[in-house]
Amino acid sequence: MKYWVNSMIKIYLGTISKLIENTNYDDILNKYDEVSIKRLSEKKAGEILLLKALSQENIVINEPLKYIYKGSKPYLESYPYYYNISHTEDFIVLAISTNEVGIDVENKNRLLKNNKLVNSIKEWTIKEAFVKYLALSVKDIKRVKILDDYVCLDDGKGHYQSIEYDDYIISIVNNEEAVIKIIKL
Fold first, then answer.
1. DSSP of the chain, one letter per residue?
2. Which of 32-41, 59-68, 110-119 has the highest mean pLDDT?
3. Which stretch of 46-60, 91-105, 107-121 has the lowest confidence by average pLDDT?
4. Contacts of 40 (CB under 8 A, 6+ apart)
5. How far apart are CA 46 and CA 23, in angstroms?
6. How far apart are CA 14 and CA 165, in angstroms?
7. Are 152 and 144 in contact (CB under 8 A)?
C-alpha cells in the first residue's frame, strides 16, 4: 500500500458524464454492493471516482467498500484515508488525504443570488468545504468566518486553499497547509 506524507492532498477531477461513459460496470459491480447501473447519479459518479482514485494509488480492493458515518460524512471503514467529494454541473472533484479533508467546487462564471461574482463564489466554496471538513450542516455556513488562510466556527478551525481550474474554483480545507496535486481522470 502507498502512503503520503501528512501534508499531501490529492485532488482527482473529471466530468460526471465521462466517468459514467468510460466505466466498466461489471468491474464496479464486483466491488460495490449497492451500485445501480440504471440510477447512476452524482453520488454514483462520486463512488466511481473514489474507486478510480484508490485504483490509481495501487490500493487493492477485494471486497465491497464499507462506510462509517460521522454525521452525514462518509469514511472508508478499512482504509486509512479521508476523502470528500463535490460536484457542480457535470464537473466532479474528490480530495483524498491521510488527514481529515473537505472540498467544494463551483463554476466561477455562475452568478450567485444578488449577482455577486467570483469573490463571493470563492468565499462560498471555502465556507462549504469547511462545514464538510467538520461534518456540519450547510445551514452553519452563515456563522463561518474566514481569516487570512484559516477558516473558523466556534471551536473548530481549518486551513483553506483555493485554486482555479479552467472555469472552476476549488476550495480545500484541512488541518494544515498542504501540497495539492491535481490528477485528471
1. -----TTEEEEEEEEHHHHHHT--HHHHHHH-SS--GGG--HHHHHHHHHHHHHHHTT----S---EEEETTEEEESSSS-EEEEEEETTEEEEEEESS-EEEEEEETTS--GGG--HHHHHHHHHHHHHHHHTT--GGGGGG-EEETTEEEETTEEEEEEEEEETTEEEEEEESS--EEEEEE-
2. 59-68
3. 107-121
4. 20, 48
5. 12
6. 11
7. yes
Distance between first and last Cα of the chain: 21
C-alpha cell at 95: 480530495
**Distance from C-alpha of 47 to C-alpha of 23, rounded to nearest angstrom:** 11
Rg (CA), the chain: 16
Q: Which residues contact 178 (CB under 8 A, 6 or more apart)?
A: 7, 8, 9, 97, 99, 159, 161, 172
- 120, amino acid identity: S
List CB contacts of 34: < 8 A, sequence separation 6 or more.
Answer: 64
Q: What is the pLDDT of residues 103-132, one digit of tens each?
A: 999 998 775 555 556 578 899 999 999 999
Q: Is the pLDDT of residue 134 over 60?
A: yes
Query: Measuring CA to CA, which residue among 172, 176, 15 is closest to residue 87?
Result: 15
